[in-house]
Amino acid sequence: MKDRNQSPMRGCFEATVISNSRVRHCFYRLNLQLDARGSSFFRHVRPGQFAELDLSRLGLPATAGAIDPYLRDAAVKSVMLRRPFSFSDVRLVSDSPLAIAVEILYCVVGPSTLRMTMLKPLDIVSMIGPLGNGFRFPANKSLAVLIAGGMGSPPLQHLAEYLRAHYPGMRTVVFAGARTIDDFPFLVNVLEDGRCVPEEFARLGEESYITTDDGSAGIRGLVTEYVDKWLGRERVEAEEAIIYACGPEAMLAAVASLAEKHGLDCQVSMERMMACGIGVCQSCAIQVKASDGRTEYRLCCKDGPVFDAKEVCFLHGK
7 with 41: CB under 8 angstroms? Predict the structure, then answer.
């Protein structure tokens, strides 16, 4: 496969809210129409890249009763810095290449995302992007194994759509894991044979599987354990397959070990606090293995957030 170089262009621009709807109790889907300037930047966006949103001017819900008790203390904190978000979808909304919309799946976990729930159609949001380095596509791969843990699914949803559009000959298999059914940021469909599949991946026609730690949906157990069994059962040829993963770092460490065991290439999308998104604040360091055997630090926002799994020194170890 020919690798597609991402555009180096990025900038600050405005986006208009198309919709902002609840998917589950604390999960929301935000759709934004980019202005012409932003659309020009996003013409060649790569899955795994992200944008920084300015949420400082948004208000809180009008009544305290509308705020979950676990958020009431955090809700009063001021929001000063932009917040990073990846995309679950990037699409043209007309025939013009300067009419691009993006979809962001987000979980309400603090003062910024709580304020995001107040966004309504026609509201304006300031964005900077696209930022970072996304997933890469090595040549001669015929199988992409996507592994999502909890809120790690958005960039992989974008990736699945991208692979379908640009690499139609590639087989894509999706594995989504979470602690319980309530921890998925998407709807879970139950098929006639009783299998549970993630709606957002199933609608693309991709082969997909769900695991939960407690067995409340799909297969009981850790997603990495099931992928390990699946790879052995399918007798996947190492040179033909690649793993793409996004989720909690402990899961990514387990995925890296899994890839090493089966001799597979693996790329992981890491997460850190990224205050600026362009490498200025130095707040998102990732420890990696250098070519001389020592370790060094790279920036998640600038050098990542996607890294080769072999390079990362995971905080939770492999």
Answer: yes
Peptide bond into 154 cis (omega under 30): no
d(CA 81, CA 55): 8
What the chain holds in terms of domains, given with CATH numbers, is 11-131 (2.40.30.10), 143-271 (3.40.50.80)
Lowest mean pLDDT among 26-35, 65-74, 158-167: 65-74
For 252-306, the pLDDT digits (tens) are: 999 999 999 999 999 999 998 888 888 888 889 999 998 888 899 999 999 999 9
Query: How many whole angstroms separate alpha carbon 297 and alpha carbon 67?
Result: 39
DSSP string, 138-191: -TT--EEEEEEEGGGHHHHHHHHHHHHHH-TTSEEEEEEEESSGGG-SS-EEE-
Q: Is pLDDT larger for residue 16 or for residue 23?
A: 16
Query: What does the pLDDT look like over 163-217, one tens digit per residue?
Result: 999 999 999 999 999 999 999 888 888 776 777 888 888 777 778 999 999 999 8
The residue-averaged pLDDT of 54-61 equals 86
pLDDT of residue 6: 46
| Residue 97: cis peptide before it, omega within 30 degrees of 0 | no
Tell me the average pLDDT of the chain.
89
